[in-house]
Design a protein that fits this description.
Layout lengths: L4 H6 L1 H11 L15 H12 L3 H61 L1 H24 L2
Helix pairs in contact: 4-5
Length: 140
């Protein structure tokens, strides 16, 4: 049974602490994991602890598989949260779009019933906006 080098490298900081808990006689120097060389690491642990190769590899595999399952559970939770957020966004967007459409239709009806007053309001708003922009530009 060999240890998955990539999984071990990805979770090494966590795994390293658990290895030191199990085999307290190991130093940080003993647990150097350079260039992803699992065989050297397993050999050093074996040499320092007297454990068999299968026992060391089995322990490392258990630790990395637990970490992978935690990561997959977290990914599932994030995916579920994203789906819920997406559903809520769609519901709110639909509500806002319907609300805006209703207000537009209401405004259209007011303009249709009162064209002269609506034109006067539009001209007044345009004049006020122009005046405001002109004063702002002049003050610079």
């Amino acid at each position: 049974m060999s240890v998955n080098s990539q999984a071990l490298r990805g979770q090494w900081n966590k795994v390293k602490g658990q290895v030191k808990e199990k085999w307290g006689q190991l130093s940080d120097d003993d647990l150097q994991f350079q260039s992803g060389n699992v065989d050297q690491l397993v050999g050093r642990i074996q040499q320092k602890t007297g454990e068999g190769r299968d026992a060391v590899e089995s322990f490392l595999n258990d630790l990395t598989s637990k970490g992978a399952s935690v990561i997959s559970q977290a990914a599932e939770s994030v995916g579920e949260y994203a789906n819920q957020a997406s559903d809520r966004f769609r519901e709110n967007y639909s509500y806002l779009a319907d609300h805006a459409r209703e207000r537009f239709e209401d405004s259209r009806e007011v303009v249709r019933r009162n064209p002269t007053e609506s034109m006067a309001v539009a001209i007044g708003v345009g004049f006020a906006a122009g005046l405001l922009v002109g004063l702002t530009l002049r003050s610079r």
